[in-house]
Structures are given as structure tokens and as C-alpha cells.
From TrEMBL:
The keyword Mitochondrion does not apply. Keywords: Carbohydrate metabolism, Chitin degradation, Chitin-binding, Disulfide bond, Glycosidase, Hydrolase, Membrane, Plant defense, Polysaccharide degradation, Signal, Signal-anchor, Transmembrane, Transmembrane helix. Residues 321-356 form the Chitin-binding type-1 domain. One of its GO terms (biological process) is cell wall macromolecule catabolic process. This is chitinase. It is found in: Membrane. It comes from the Eukaryota. Disulfide bonds join C326-C338, C331-C345. CDD domains: chitinase_GH19, ChtBD1. GO terms for cellular component: membrane. It is a single-pass membrane protein. It holds the Pfam family Chitin_bind_1.
Amino acid sequence: MAILFKPGLFLSLFLLISSYHTATEASKVAQSLNFNSTFGNGTSNARELAGKCNWFRGKWVFDPKYPLYDSNCPFIDPQFNCQKYGRPDSYYLKYRWQPFACDLPRFNGLYFLEKWRGKKIMFVGDSLSLNQWTSLTCLIHSWVPNSKYTLFRTDVLSSLTFEDYGVKILLYRTTYLVDLVNDKAGRVLKLDSINNGKAWLGMDMLIFNTWHWWTHTGRSQPWDYIQEGGKLYKDMNRLIAFYKGLTTWARWVNRNVDPSKTKVFFQDVSPTHYVGGDWNEPSKSCAAETQPFFGTRYPAGTPLAWAVVNKEPLPKNVVEAQNCGCAANLCCSQYGYCGTSNAYCGRGCKQGPCYSSPTPTTPSGVVSVSDIFTPGFFNGIISQAGAGCAGKNFYTRNAFLSAVNSYPQFGKLGSAEASKREIAAFFAHVTHETGHFCYTEEINGASRDYCDENNRQYPCVPGKKYHGRGPIQLSWNYNYGPAGRSNNFDGLNNPDIVARDAVVSFKTALWFWMKSVRPVVSQGFGATIRAINGNECNGGNSGAVQARVRYYRDYCSQLGVSTENNLAC
């Protein structure tokens, strides 16, 4: 996991590499980020130091004056709010970065806001970008704690505007920079496509990063196939994939960004901190470490990704050390493809291109939600609703499929059978909750109190009702709030949209499913009943339980899969 970096480290941990220069010019970095000691002296001190001092070579020093902001900063996500949620030590807050050859000028938030008045800065990347976005916004907020701001957040996009200055700082979450899409084959990582880049245009500064997720395998790997040039591959050498993806990103920047109007930087790879052997403590992990590594050179050496970022030749042992997902009887070529000829299995793996084109992988055992949730399947449910039902003209198959695009992991559980059972379970509950897509809202729900006044994170708005709405009958303020945040609507101020916009309605159902139901799907259908309405279990409403089970059995039969044990609760 990443950590929140402190003000003195903000520039040094960028390790910014300009995408339109072969090397970062330190003076330009200093000028654009506005590190200075006082508000009135401009950036002359920073520019002078930039020519004499390498800010990136230094060490951690203990400073009792730190931290310069605390966990009260309103922009820190709960998962990174270590002090609020019980981290036992606090010494890590008191370290600052000290360059060997100079003192790092203190960041001045007021000067930053004035210099960037009316401009937009966007971070694009994974949790490293999230940390940097949070650090910068908290730094600025600590200088102007009473300044009016507007914060808008979804799973993908966060936007913070300091209204008095017109400065907008945005975060676009993407693990790979290139596109990750949900299609019939499954979750596909497209190495030569960046359609998401439309959201990055019009910025005055863009700061990119990617690397961490390229090496993930198994359950933590968020894709099923890699696509390049219209062909699908089950896997390839991850450094090769990273190189190809980064090349696509660089081409996108060259084609779409005017360097005279937009500064573009690439954040380099942060040191790993999971395995103690990387810092000469092989028996340890980062779990009990309370001090930084004080050496002048990181023992683990330069990360492999550095060679890719700098377009250096890959070390010869890289390919040999990785099997790139090939079957046991296949070899991995220099370019990450699987095969049996000398081009794939030659001494050290051949340095040149493969002699023959790799054979695309034909997806097997993969289900597409759109193929399973057919028009006939949908019509078989909604046709049983009465003609006067509000949901009859509200719920549509297209609305559901549109919502699924926001939740590409839905209906993807490893095997085709398990995936079909999840889809059957979802619609069994939807059928029961909505009366075959008849109801868009809970019957007499508006007369009931679904406000948890003790929940301060998602406080109830006076006059708003949080009764059941949508396919899974979303209820309570503590569900409307985060569901809206995840799906780009204000769930607390506008809960009615769940019963007025069919796509939003299905998105809230999928949000609840992936958050609260998906974790127990493997325990059987009975566990999903308990997750959705535990009051029905243990004799609370056996009729409702049996109705859900009947729908589930029916839909499993339609999809050609058997039901598992543990059907009731």
C-alpha cells in the first residue's frame, strides 16, 4: 500500500519525468510547482537552488515541528487515515526529506494558489497518484483552512476546486493508463488503446503514473486477457506489456497535448516495501517498521520498471526469470509470447522478433453478461408484472447492460458455471424485491424512517427519504451516500433519482451487490439472502426465503447450471 507523503517530500517523491523532454529540467519543475520560502519573493530561491542542488539525492531526518497538517484534513480517504483508525505510532509523521547539498524551501500554499489561479491540474494513475493528489490538496488546505472549496468524488474521478482562486485539482483513477474494458471475452487490457484520455484534455498540468498493477497475477489481477492489434492473448511478459502500454501512452501525449499549454510529467516507480530482503532484513516485512531506511542507496537496487521507463535494454535474466503465464510445455519468448519453436525456446530466448506470429488465445470458459442476460431472459421476468406497474416502462435490459459497464467484475467468478450462478442469484433477488420488475420503490416506504442519525459520514438531509428504491431496494442514508459517490450522483440530496433513472437504479443494485453480496456468493445462495435481508433468515420470514430460492432454482435451470448446497438461511 502507499502512504501519504508530507510537504517537504512532495517534490522529491514526484521523480517527475517530462513526457516531452528526455530529462526533467529542475528549474522548470521548481517554477511550476512554486516551492519558495516566503510569499513575496517569487520562485527565485527555488530556481537558484535548482541549478545547484539535486533535490532527489538526500535522506530522511527527524523534525519535531512536523507534521504540517494532520488527519483532520477533509480530503484524506479513510483507508489512508492511519491516525484516526488506530495506528499505534506517530513518529512517521515527523520525518522530512533533506537533500544532501541544500535545504528544501518550504511549500507556500498561498503563492501556489495565486500562481495557478484559474488553472487545472490533474493526476492520472493508481494509488500513488491518489496519495500525491491528497498530499497536495491537504497542503493547500492547511494554508487556507477557511477558503471555500467544492469537492466532487466518484470511483474514477475526484475534483477539488478552491473557489476563491478558481484552482481545480483533479484525480483520474486508472491502473494502467491504457484501456481496461469489459467485453464478451471478459476483462480485456488493451495495450494499444486510450479512449479514457478524453477526460484528460484541457488541463494546464498532467501528472501520470503506472506500474504497480502490471505485475499482479491470480485473483489480484484485474484483467482476463491482453489485447494488441485486435488479437487476444492470455498473458505475456509483464515488462513487455508495460513497455507496450507506456509506448501507447507516450504516443497519446505527443498527439493530444500541446506542450506550450500543458506541462506533462510522469511519476516514476516508488521503491517496494513489502519484502524485508529488499532492505537487508530478510526475516521482516514492513508491518513492524517505524523508521525509514537511512542508507544512501536502496539495497534492492533499481526497479525493473526503470529500464522500461528509460527505454534501456531489458536485462537478459528478466525473461528467463518469468514464465509469462505459459503452459508447462511451452517456452516464453523474448517478447512474452508462448510457443515451442526455437524462436520461443532458443538459448536465453531469442533477442529478435519471433519467427512466426503468436497465435491468439481463444477464450474458453468465459461468459459474457450480455450473452447470459438475453432479451428472452429479461422478458420472461418483466412479462409477469402487471400492466399498471411503474417498473413495466422503467426497467430495461439495455439499462442493466449499461450499468454493468461500471461493474465489469460482475458475473466473472472464475468458471462459467460460477458466473452463471451469480447472475441467476442476482436476478432471483431482483425478481423478489421488485415483484418481477413491477416496483421501483418500496411499498409504503416513504412513511418509514430510514435515517441513521448516528452516521455522521453520510448525514441525512432534511426532507429527504431513504426508503427502498431500485432493483435491490437500496435503503438507509449510509447506503445512498456511498452509492451516489461511487456512481456520480448525490445520493443524500437526490435519492429519488434511483427510482427515476433506470441506469442509475441498476448501478445502485450492482454497487450493493459487489460491496455486500459478492463477498459471500461462494458460501451459497442462502448467504446472499442473509446479506440482502437478514431479517428473513432463521424463521423471520420463511415464505420470502422460499420465494427467493424458487426464483434462483428457476434461473439456474434456464442458464443450464446446477444449484449448490446451502440454498436457504
